[in-house]
Design goal:
455 residues; alpha+beta
């Protein structure tokens, strides 16, 4: 800038000297004046080029700034230009690294989705409201390989932000440009529902039952719990292609479909229990945990929206609505039912609400009450059954000894043991009668639960 002003001053001085020379010596100085004129003109051209260069740089900088501001405007779903200022201020005051991570999370949406050349069909069969449903989706091996190669680990620059887990789940809910698999699946489910004359909320129920019916990957779950192998969360496309997944995989798939249908959705993460479920937007007064979302179970079949299922600590799975059985089943003997613990809600979005919850809240309240009764009765019955088994073994041993003493005609030992045997028989009968009464109550509770859960 200083050099340009200096050249401009020299050029002005030259014109002044030339004019003076022209006044005092009109003939002898003509050639000098002409030379000085052209020299001054070249200086002006240089100065003009220098200014144009700087204007060009400034224009490019302004274009870059405008592009970044437009990105911020769209990324944060702003509604007015004035809202950009506080967002930018937050970025400058320490959230720059977080903003960079958000941009990094968009990488998958910028990648070129492969051309579908190796199409393969996946057939899904499930039940909803006692009717059988079938859906065939066209998937592709190349597309599956594409998602399999996408980032599965959260990376960041600078300090790890407090919302990193939210961003991590968000990675798996982004689809590559050109991938229409979730769009197609959502439309297919909606069209299937309309064919069966289902309401919009019933189509949501149909969608949840579709995801619930996808096989649970027990092998992967065991590896995760044992911290073995390199198990990772699946993108929704991978879950569809493999037709199996654990709770996190199936929950991400359900959320992707429901959001495509226009519903608000969120992730319910029970980190202490290693369990993940979904929340679907519903009227806050009927919502789970007062969150504005109703609980949706994706792993066990039959659990309806709004019902938090029992959690079996033995198998580390939630108990499906149709899985609760009588106490004499091996499952009931081995089950260790409990309530899910602390929940953290991630990836909260707004949208259409599931209103059916208002109609089913009374049934859900009774189901929850029955479920808690079942959970409290089951451990006691399991313990009583174990004690009865021990009593039976003791009675068998005593009976064998009595028979031995009788055969040996050992009257003294026989008589001393008869009293103990008779006391144990009396206690065993009382314990058995008490146990059978509780079993009857338990099984009636189960029967009522199973009736309600199917409504």
């Amino acid at each position: 800038m200083g050099n340009s002003l200096e050249r401009e001053s020299k050029a002005r001085d030259m014109f002044e000297i030339s004019n003076m020379s022209l006044f005092f010596c009109p003939y002898s100085c003509y050639a000098k004046v002409i030379l000085n004129f052209f020299h001054s003109k070249s200086e002006l051209v240089y100065m003009l080029r220098n200014w144009l260069h700087k204007i060009g740089i400034v224009s490019i900088e302004l274009l870059v700034i405008a592009s970044l501001l437009f990105y911020v405007y769209q990324k944060n779903n702003l509604t007015s230009i004035g809202q950009i200022i506080p967002v930018v201020q937050n970025m400058i005051s320490g959230r720059g690294a977080e903003f960079a991570n958000q941009m990094k999370g968009d990488i998958i949406t910028k990648q070129i989705f492969p051309k579908l050349q190796n199409e393969t069909k996946r057939v899904f069969n499930w039940e909803y409201r006692n009717e059988k449903y079938t859906l065939t989706e066209n998937l592709d091996q190349g597309a599956y390989d594409f998602y399999k190669a996408q980032p599965k680990v959260f990376s960041y620059s600078g300090e790890l932000q407090s919302n990193w887990a939210d961003e991590y789940y968000g990675m798996f809910l982004k689809s590559a440009i050109g991938d229409e698999s979730i769009v197609t699946l959502a439309k297919d489910l909606q069209n299937l529902g309309k064919v069966h004359k289902l309401s919009d909320d019933q189509i949501v129920d149909l969608t949840l039952s579709f995801v619930q019916a996808i096989a649970y990957d027990d092998a992967k779950a065991k590896n995760i719990l044992a911290k073995k192998g390199t198990e990772t969360v699946l993108y929704p496309y991978e879950t569809l292609f493999e037709q199996k997944g654990v709770c996190s995989d199936k929950s991400l798939l359900a959320i992707a479909i429901l959001r495509q249908m226009g519903y608000g959705a969120a992730i319910f993460a029970f980190e202490d229990d290693n369990h993940t479920a979904i929340g679907i937007a519903c009227p806050k007064e009927y919502s789970t945990y007062g969150s504005g979302y109703c609980y949706g179970e994706t792993t066990s079949v039959g659990n309806k929206i709004g019902i938090i299922p029992s959690f079996d600590a033995t198998s580390n799975k939630t108990v499906g609505a149709i899985e609760l059985s009588a106490i004499d089943s091996s499952q009931s003997e081995q089950a260790n039912l409990k309530q899910l613990g602390h929940v953290t809600i991630y990836q909260q979005t707004s949208g259409r609400e599931y209103d059916e919850i208002a109609e089913t809240r009374k049934i859900i309240a009774e189901i929850d009450s029955l479920k808690k009764s079942i959970e409290s009765m089951l451990p006691e019955l399991q313990s009583q059954k174990k004690n009865l088994k021990n009593s039976e073994n003791n009675l068998d041993n005593l009976k064998k000894n009595l028979e031995k003493y009788k055969n040996d005609q050992n009257v003294e030992k026989y008589n001393s043991l008869v009293g103990e045997f008779n006391d144990l028989v009396k206690k065993y009968k009382n314990d058995t009668r008490n146990y059978n009464e509780k079993v009857s109550l338990y099984n009636k509770t189960i029967a009522r639960y199973n009736v309600l859960i199917k409504q």
